[in-house]
Amino acid sequence: MTRRRRKKQGTVVSSLIVLIAILWGVFTKAGSDPNGSQFLRDFTGNNDEHVTNTISDASKAKTNYGGLSPTDYQKLANLNFKSGSRAYTEVNHDKSTLVKGAWKINRVIYSNLDSLNRTSRSNTAFLEKRNVANDSLRVRQYVEPTGWHYNHRNGTQIYNRGHLIAYSVSAGIDQSGNYDPRNQSGDQNNPKNLFTQSAYSNQKIQTIFEAKVRRALRQNKRVIYQATAVFRGNELMARGVNLQAVSTDGSLNFNVYLYNVQPGYVFNYNNGRAKVDRQMQVNE
């Protein structure tokens, strides 16, 4: 009986030692990263120091404010546009996967470019009324995102520098994603926020959804807006862009995928070059 009792006590002591070791490791790790900043950097690919200011709101970025899974983005990347089809399609029954309760502080989380210098990770904006921008403050754009080519088609505009987080809702947002009232011109030449987009997709389709966001902001609603350029494999031009938004009161809620296509042209998405194809039709 004594031996059994001693054996049992030894087992309890061993278990306590293991538990203490585990807890020590957890607290040591937390102590070295008290704000969870490494978690946010791993999720967004963002190594900038400013991310430490966002931890109270998004230290568990993926679970706290949502978004599509890598598998979902892969499915979108594999979609092939068929001539005559609609320029965009609903995702998740047109319902955002963002968590509306995640809105805490007015800011934008910009993700770093990937190894090919593409904006292939999501940018997520926590917006309010003061972010609606004055269009008169636009400046000349000079950033050349991957797959970029200048327009040389008899005056026909084919390419745009597409903003993931629209200029029109970026008043006061600096390139670190923080709100600065002195920066009313907004974010216009941020490489982390630009991708090569067809003029049609940018000017005819994306503006539809950006207008919905602006309307909600002007109604003094708080909005979470996320945009993700979707690339297939190592291609330098995005196949499309996923846009989704939700207001904190739930009145604004959409989730769409816009094909990166241009009527009358087809793209080589490997390098972004366009070729005339009069058979290519796009239904708005």
From TrEMBL:
<dbReference type="InterPro" id="IPR044929">
    <property type="entry name" value="DNA/RNA_non-sp_Endonuclease_sf"/>
</dbReference>
<dbReference type="GO" id="GO:0004519">
    <property type="term" value="F:endonuclease activity"/>
</dbReference>
<dbReference type="InterPro" id="IPR001604">
    <property type="entry name" value="Endo_G_ENPP1-like_dom"/>
</dbReference>
<keyword id="KW-0540">Nuclease</keyword>
<protein>
    <submittedName>
        <fullName>DNA nuclease</fullName>
    </submittedName>
</protein>
<dbReference type="GO" id="GO:0003676">
    <property type="term" value="F:nucleic acid binding"/>
</dbReference>
<dbReference type="GO" id="GO:0016787">
    <property type="term" value="F:hydrolase activity"/>
</dbReference>
<dbReference type="GO" id="GO:0046872">
    <property type="term" value="F:metal ion binding"/>
</dbReference>
<dbReference type="InterPro" id="IPR044927">
    <property type="entry name" value="Endonuclea_NS_2"/>
</dbReference>
<keyword id="KW-0378">Hydrolase</keyword>
<dbReference type="Pfam" id="PF13930">
    <property type="entry name" value="Endonuclea_NS_2"/>
</dbReference>
<keyword id="KW-0255">Endonuclease</keyword>
<feature type="domain" description="DNA/RNA non-specific endonuclease/pyrophosphatase/phosphodiesterase">
    <location>
        <begin position="91"/>
        <end position="276"/>
    </location>
</feature>
